[in-house]
Amino acid sequence: MDTNFGFVRVAACVPRLRVADCAFNAQEVKLMISRALDEGVEVICFPELTVTGYTCADLFFNQQLQQNALNAVREICDFTRSKPIIVLVGAPLKVDNNLYNCAFVLTDGEVVGVVPKINLPNTGEFYEKRWFTSGRFTIEHAAGGFQPRIPNIELWNGEVPFGPDQLFFTRNYCFGIEICEDLWSPLPPSTQLAIQGAELIFNLSSSNCLTNKHAFRRQMITQQSARVHCGYVYTSSGIGESTTDVVFSGSTYIAENGLLLEMGERFQRDSSMVITELDVERLRFDRLRNTNFTKDQHGHYRKVYVAPIESENGETEPLHRVFSTTPFLPAKRDEDDYCNDVLLIQSNALARRWEHTRAENLVIGVSGGLDSTLALLVCVQAADLLGYDRKRVMGVTMPGFGTSGRTYQNALSLMQELGITQREISIREMATQHLRDIEHDLDTHDITYENAQARIRTLNLMDLANKYNGIVVGTGDMSELALGWATYSGDQMSMYGVNAGVPKTLVRYIVRYAAENSFDSRVRNLLLDIVDTPVSPELLPTDAEGNIAQKTEDKVGPYELHDFFLYYFLRYGFSKDKIFYMATQAFEEQFEPDTIRHWLDVFMRRFYTQQFKRSCMPDGPKVVSVSLSPRGDWRMPSDIPL
User: Fold this and answer.
1) Helix, strand and coil percent figures for the chain, each rounded to 5
2) Which sign does the torsion angle of CA 353, 359, 360, 364 carry?
3) DSSP 130
4) Are the C-beta atoms of 194 and 176 separated by less than 8 Å?
């Protein structure tokens, strides 16, 4: 498999198991490796003590079992020869008359490293110290860190690195290994491994099943992946283990930087496997931005180079990983908290600015469109938070050449239902006079014709704010700022931009959520009709039936695509080619690749050429994980060549 723009395909596998039957277990592992190869998996991780089972207890002391385990590992190792895969299996291993609980790293018929478990549980049912020696004793502490006490061991393929102080480097990524209880320790080995360079962590585990433990374990894995900006692959023993005292469920998780990508079904009676891709470029970007993520000189970790056979398929393959087409939107289970947070961030930010300025009123242009509707809801909520009369919110509708009856009536009705002060100022006469003054043909509906109206509307709002001791609340959203879809010194300007941190897809989502959860039927119906109205600046005349003729997405492209591009461009700094590749995966059933490529070209061109509008954008709160504020998240010269 090609590197796929930094994607590494991994698998967490739970094979069928017979306790202490190493030959059977080796056969099952080989079957699962074959399945993984068919799926183009690059690294497959099996549970702790894969070839023996975890519940052998005092049988671990049996010399025959120890030899059978080593034979099984060798059989699996031989099976990997000339195959493009790295295999991680667990087995007991006797070294210097101590028995260790180990992970073996196998590829192309070779053992490239053996990692012993450090933290051994000491509970009644899992008293591993009865059988195993901690890998901690394989290293010695020295000045400035530590050094291997047993640097290498002799196996059938020669000397092999041994110890928990190993970082495994491939051509495209670096990974580290910890085993089960290591993750539960106060300072997991994965923390130091990640600091030293491991981008992926694999955990071979045998964690039993108890009520609520599944959720706690899942949370711990996702949190650890977030804490050290890593991909984390975890697989635990299945139901084939002995049930003398406890039960194992075969838990598998694959997480990346706090996000759970895959989780397998538990209590499977047959072998099971989950597969997805981990994005190493994404992890590297977050580590690059986190200047606290620097190499700690505590310890000297050995670099072990792993060179698996390259796949014969050099082409980029479709991913198992699924990308949301709406990365700014919440999962359904998180909807209430997420949407409430958005509104609370916006309204509290505005309330703070209102208090600070000691303004008497808020002044906002209300068009009957999505952006001004969300901004108006925020204004009303800010007034309620401060205990102010809603009449101190002045909504101004300014019909122009392109105002449709639908948006005009929705604007009037919404202001009335929310109980704010209403003003109407038609801009038609003023715009007509202005265009005549600058000798512009009224029948020429070009950028001058459009921008003149936008600037006149802003002029009205600014002067009303001066007259009534108010501040102008901006309505433009983050997607418009990214595309430069705003009139410079027109709707680009305000005294506080409450929507500047909210992308268009989220604006629509929040307005719909508010309609369905916060208002009576009259306001709900108004808001839902606004959500269903085509996005438009309404600066060009309506059609013969009085309907909107100027639709923004016909001109600049679907906002669903642009918000996808914006998220991955800002949040992770991905290249244009990678964003295109991901978009073709995400929007496979909605847009043809040529369509995606066209609108991505538009996005990139507009984003680079319109920075000058963002360089002087008004204050406004950051709401989601990215922002375009030149004072915060995004600082960029305005004259970068394309």
Assistant:
1) 40, 20, 40
2) negative
3) G
4) yes
Helices 63-79, 22-38: crossing angle, 10 deg rounding: 20
Q: 637: burial class by Cβ within 10 Å (0-12, 13-18, 19+)?
A: exposed
pLDDT computed for residue 315 by the predictor: 56
Q: Which of 28, 42, 48, 560 is catalytic?
A: 48
The model's pLDDT over 182-229, given as tens digits with 9 standing for 90+, comes to 998 899 999 999 999 999 999 999 988 888 888 899 999 999 999 999
The span from the CA of 75 to the CA of 115, in Å, is 19
**Beta-bridge partner residues of 90:** 103
User: For residues 340 and 336, what is the distance between their CA atoms, to the nearest angstrom?
Assistant: 6
CB-based burial, 583-616: b 16+ in 10 Å, e otherwise = beebbeeebeeeebeebbebbeebbbbbbebbee
> Which residues is 424 bridged to in the sheet?
397
User: Which segments within 218-295 are labelled E, that is strand?
Assistant: 231-236, 252-256, 259-263, 272-279
Find the helix packing angle between 559-572 and 504-517, rounded to 10°.
110
What is d(CA 202, CA 57) in angstroms, rounded to the nearest whole number? 24
Residue 57 and residue 222: Cα distance in Å, rounded? Answer: 31
Known catalytic residue at 417: no
Q: Active-site residue 317, yes or no?
A: no
| Catalytic hit among 77, 174, 180, 379 | 180
SS3 state of residue 189? helix
Contacts of 244 (CB under 8 A, 6+ apart): 55
* Residue 56 annotated in active site: no
Around 137, how many Cα atoms within 13 Å sit in the side-chain half-sphere? 11
Amino acid letter, 631: R
Choosing from 30, 117, 504, 578, which is the catalytic residue?
117
Q: Supply the pTM of this predicted model.
A: 0.91
Give the pLDDT confidence of 21-74 residue by residue, as tens digits: 999 999 999 999 999 999 999 999 999 999 999 999 999 999 999 999 999 999
